[in-house]
Amino acid sequence: MGAPALKTSLPDVGHLATWTVSSHKPGFDVNCLRDDDPDTFWQSDGPQPHYITLQFAKKVPVQKLAIMLNFAADDSYTPIKLLIKAGTGLYDLQDVKTVTMDKPTGWVTFDVGTERPKDGHGFLDSCLRSKPLSIYALQVVIAANHMNGKDTHVRGLRVLGAKEATMRDDDLLPFTSLAFKMYEMIR
Fold this sequence. Notes:
The chain is mainly beta. The protein has helices spanning 71-74, 123-127, 178-181, and strands at 17-21, 42-43, 50-70, 79-87, 94-100, 105-111, 114-115, 130-131, 133-145, 153-154, 156-161. The longest helix has 5 residues, at 123-127.
């Protein structure tokens, strides 16, 4: 079957998290979400809604999510509506974005950052549409499947961080890498 690799300039920060899922069938667990094999998938096994939860030990900037789906192979197991939640922990998750898809196949990438205020700079506004969410917890809720299917198949999930910022002359500390940015605030 094969699917093209995810092409992005943003770093994958998913390896920094502990991943859990609401349920899974034997052999189709959370590891299938990260194995880079389009022929494997996480399959839920239980009542809806289904969810994938990531918990980070440190605050992590998240710009986009990418999810690999295959409508042609999965039919009624294919998610068509996702609800993205984020917060500082599992008990304060807030709705960030709702994503609706129609017969998705391959990688579907969408921004989860917060909208930047309009400042009248025109071109700059169009280039910098959103700023990353700085979070400790992220949850992808599968709210609905194609044809109201019960269980779901997800073939891959990537959590994409922010591009590393370039250092300005007026920065007091020259720590701009993702690794250092995670430690810049006390929880």
